[in-house]
Amino acid sequence: MAKKSKSVLKTTRQAAKRRIMNRTKKQKLRKMLKDVRNIKEKDELLKILPKVQANIDKSVKSRIIHKNTAARLKSKLVKLSRGLETKKT
Fold first, then answer.
1. What pTM was estimated for this model as a whole?
2. 8-83 belongs to which CATH class?
3. What is the mean pLDDT of the segment spanning 48-70?
4. Is 32 helix (H, G, I), strand (E, B) or coil?
5. Angle at the Cα of 23 from the Cα atoms of 22 and 26, rounded to 5 degrees
């Protein structure tokens, strides 16, 4: 087997770090989306919705998800929020 240059080894290390970071960010996004889908009250959902949308936008910026996927996710969340009823006190 041929010797590997320093730059190849460094690129391999960087790719491994990035892969771990990207996987963590994607898991965080999926968990956040799952938590939002399980919310039953509209008031609670409307408080969390801007944070989730911001997280989706950040994922697009760092190329974790595609921009069309992000648009579809945000659209579904808004549609979900419109379908819920407000809690009457």
1. 0.81
2. mainly alpha
3. 96
4. helix
5. 85
